[in-house]
Specification:
Helix content of chain A: over 70%
Radius of gyration of chain B: 21 Å
Helix content of chain B: 25-40%
Oligomer: heterodimer
Order of helices and strands of chain A: HHHHHHHHHHHH
Number of strands of chain B: 12
Number of helices of chain B: 11
Radius of gyration of chain A: 23 Å
Structural class of chain B: alpha/beta
Shape of chain B: globular
Number of strands of chain A: 0
Structural class of chain A: mainly alpha
Strand content of chain B: 15-25%
Largest sheet of chain A: none
Order of helices and strands of chain B: HEEEHEEHEHHHHEHEHEEHHEE
Distance between the termini of chain A: 25 Å
Strand order of the largest sheet of chain B: 6-7-8-3-9-10-12-11
Strand content of chain A: under 5%
Shape of chain A: elongated
Number of helices of chain A: 12
Distance between the termini of chain B: 34 Å
Largest sheet of chain B: 8 strands, mixed
């Protein structure tokens, strides 16, 4: 006891700090985290950073290849691609994070209630998820877009509304296994109210899987936004998202390859980094990886 | 009537089963009869040792007292009285109000009974605040409790996480949490099984001290006859969901009357003399609660069972001999 005590002191080394230690050792995940923080930071300050107005047209210039004045070149209407990519970053990140938040909110609540109360509540709630799961899901988003208009808000409501399903399933499963834990029984044995046990004892322990899945939802949602924009259902010109830029670039790929290359590169980098981050978090938050790290 | 009043807890012919056939296999299996007429009572401030094999119903009896059984559990007959009030069939809220305040339970494995995510302090404060204690007061009282349990530097320990503690320390923390609201009854379900022998002794001493200082009645569920001998006033042996023998500890250790109790006593390694090549065993396996025999549950393994006694056909009733000694067996014994 004394050795362990001397080593850790009485500060209390939380599971969180242990997880952070494991995470730091994972280079790919750590550099992904920094890259993402950099991207997000740039996206936030982009209005002050952008060298040109993203919607300023210079028809005389037309599509020009990358130059000192326009690092990423310009598009067909002579708009600065770097500025458009920066504004696109804001849109893409916003959609990615907002839809993930919606997914988190609905998915965690839904899954936690179903898993915790079990029985008939659980069957009913999960059948709802099953039915929604059965819908072809891009199609569902497209219908939402068509019905409620192609507004920006609707994009992430639509995307969030379908991406909570997997979150709900994951959370339900985790809660069901956690509720059999001895410390839950021990808490019940001292009369801690059921709801408090769920909120204070069960959900914090489910944080790992929730966080990991949320990290993996962001790139998926971003890709879906890109896809919607690619189909012309996403953000409308002159506003740009990475998806809509890629769509434009793809159609002019042969003549002006930089129009596709730059937005595609930043999107790919972001998605890759988010996936690395998610994997890194999963490894760091799973105590079982301690043995082989 | 006054005798009934001094009783804190009373099992009166309590029987319960878990319905079969609705498990994942849905194979129409018969119900598992886990408790089959338990008669047992506990005085205020008394320590009762409850021993028996795994699956004999000890833990289920404990969980029933707290109202923590799985919702499929079905009580088929009998009563379970706490302070003279039948608590079978009470609402979950009624049970919950009693937990911690009147009855608390400590579980077998201290390594898994604490939430790994929360500091020790958070977990004990959470319980203390049920009495409406303010947060700073609860913090103070929590540290005091840890100190009373013999943990060094209790204020510092409040900030520790469970994984920073040894098993013995965690078990002390769990006992502190269980006792924080000063319940009148503590059910300790094999609280020392997962600990090393030295720590076991310390925990047992702690229980004795608690009873002296707070008058806590304790049901001590265990496999360990040695622990019962040092701790309990009275002991009960459980087999197949029934109490087969109940006696004051001295009486029991001097002259166990039930063949199963005798088997248990004989299976202990001797403290003196040459070590036997093999320990004596109670042969056979415990009965399957889904297919209990018609007669005595122990008959198939019993070395005394004979057809004359109709052990296989009839359930032996409780027989009293001696003031507080009771056995559920037909065998008159060699006495």
């Amino acid at each position: 006891m004394s050795a362990a005590e001397a080593e850790t002191g009485s500060r209390g080394v939380s599971l969180r700090s242990a997880a952070w230690r494991r995470f730091r050792r994972n280079r790919a995940a750590l550099s992904s985290l920094f890259l993402l923080l950099f991207f997000v930071f740039v996206a936030i300050i982009s209005p002050w950073l952008a060298p040109h107005e993203y919607h300023h047209q210079n028809l005389a210039l037309g599509a020009s290849s990358p130059s000192v004045a326009h690092w990423f070149g310009t598009d067909y209407e002579g708009r600065d691609l770097l500025s458009r990519t920066l504004v696109g970053a804001r849109i893409s990140f916003l959609v990615g994070f907002a839809a993930t938040l919606v997914a988190l909110g609905i998915g965690v609540t839904w899954g936690a209630i179903a898993g915790w109360y079990g029985g008939r509540v659980d069957s009913l709630m999960m059948r709802v998820v099953d039915v929604l799961y059965g819908l072809p899901y891009m199609f569902f988003v497209i219908i939402l877009m068509v019905w409620f208009g192609r507004s920006f808000l609707n994009i992430f409501i639509g995307l969030g509304a379908v991406s909570w399903l997997t979150m709900a399933r994951i959370v339900r499963g985790v809660v069901m296994s956690l509720k059999e834990k001895e410390y839950v029984l021990a808490a019940r044995a001292t009369g801690v109210p059921s709801r408090r046990i769920l909120l204070r004892h069960v959900l914090p322990n489910a944080l790992g899987p929730i966080l990991v899945y949320a990290t993996l939802t962001v790139p998926r949602v971003m890709m879906e936004e890109a896809f919607l924009s690619f189909l012309g259902l996403g953000v409308q010109p002159p506003l740009a998202s990475w998806g809509s830029l890629i769509a434009e670039g793809a159609s002019l790929f042969r003549e002006y390859p930089w129009l596709l290359a730059f937005p595609a590169a930043v999107l790919s980098l972001t998605l890759l980094a988010l996936n690395f981050l998610g994997d890194g978090l999963r490894d760091a938050l799973d105590p079982k990886t301690e043995a082989n790290s | 009537m006054s005798a009934a009043d001094s009783r804190l807890l009373r099992f009166d012919d309590l029987a319960l089963e878990f319905p079969g056939g609705d498990g994942p296999g849905r194979d129409g299996a018969p119900a598992a009869k886990v408790l089959n007429g338990v008669d047992l009572s506990l005085e205020r401030g008394e320590i009762l040792g409850l021993v028996g094999e795994s699956g004999s119903g000890k833990t289920v009896a404990g969980l029933a007292t707290l109202g923590l059984l799985d919702r499929r559990a079905r009580f088929t007959r009998g009563r379970l009285e706490f302070r003279g009030e039948n608590i079978i069939g009470q609402s979950p809220a009624q049970h919950r109000r009693r937990r911690g305040l009147d009855i608390a339970m400590v579980f077998q494995d201290p390594m898994t009974s604490l939430n790994p995510f929360l500091r020790i302090g958070t977990q004990i404060i959470e319980v203390l605040r049920r009495r409406g204690m303010s947060r700073p007061d609860a913090k103070l009282a929590g540290a005091q409790w840890l100190g009373k349990m013999g943990l060094p530097k209790p204020e510092a320990q409040m900030k520790s996480y469970p994984h920073e503690m040894s098993g013995g320390m965690r078990q002390r923390v769990l006992i502190a949490i269980a006792l924080a609201l000063e319940p009148e009854l503590l059910i300790a379900d094999e609280p020392t099984t997962a600990l090393d022998v030295t720590t076991q002794a310390e925990i047992l001493a702690l229980f004795l001290r608690l009873r002296e200082t707070m008058g806590t009645a304790i049901i001590f569920i265990t496999h360990d006859l040695g622990a019962v001998a040092g701790l309990a006033d009275r002991m009960a042996v459980m087999y197949g969901g029934r109490i087969v023998e109940e006696a004051p500890v001295e009486t029991f250790f001097a002259a166990p009357a039930h063949p199963y109790s005798q088997g248990l006593m004989a299976s202990r390694p001797p403290l003196e003399g040459p070590r036997p090549h093999r320990l004596k065993l109670v042969g056979g396996t415990p009965p399957d609660p889904r297919h209990l025999p018609a007669g005595c549950a122990f008959a198939a393994r019993c070395i005394q069972a004979t057809s004359d006694l109709s052990c296989e056909e009839l359930v032996p009733p409780d027989r009293q001999f001696g003031a507080q000694h009771r056995v559920a067996c037909f065998w008159e014994g060699p006495r």
